[in-house]
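Q: I'm writing up a methods section and want to include an example of the input and output format. Could you take the sequence below and give the corresponding predicted structure tokens, formatted cleanly so I can copy it straight into the document?
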Amino acid sequence: MQRFRVRSQSANVVWMKTAEEHWKKWFQDVWKQREEAVYPELFGPFADDIESLSAKWFESMGFNDIDPRWLTHGVLTSPPNEYHDNWVYITTGLSNPWGIDPADKQPDQYSGLGFEFFMQTAEPAPWAIETLASLMAMQILVAQELIAGGLLEPFDRVPLGRTIDKSDRSLIRNLLILPPEHIPTQARLDSGVFDLLLCVGITDAELQFARAQDGSGLQKVLLHHDCIPVTEPHRHSVV
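A: Here is the clean output for your methods example:
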């Protein structure tokens, strides 16, 4: 007696379509969970608009052949509210579980690249959105092994190659990547966990200090001078 029957071609098509639809729904639910549950629980309400990652960030790094998935990433804005009295800008998309089947998810493993970046500013800051967008594009290209480097971790330093707000008055030309102290350092999605990485602007002198004393040493100095978590583009160097 024949135990198994070979699926017909049409049955295979239906099965594949159903599996794809199941994956898309799960993926979208994870995305929604991050933006509508996790982030608001940490930072309160967000503005409706999202600054989507545009092709120009990849083109500026010499890449014109752009994967459409890269452009689904973006930066969200949380204006001052009962959770914080400053402006919060946070990336969304780096923790998306591309290529993972829901059946293979491991709750304690990292989702996607395993992190999202955020910055805090005293005033509305388009330059913070641009800084995070550039950082996202760079990390996507690193993850795709299209440019050299590693994925950023706490206490890494990132030279910007310019002042953070593109003004002549600013001394802030670099970023220090930190684990936040005022909110949890990690968040959980149905697809796994991801780290929250605070980006703080630092001067060239502070960058040299961090290279000599390590990033945690600079973190202590910045905390002492109340330069964390808010990036102030026109502050003086503290070292």
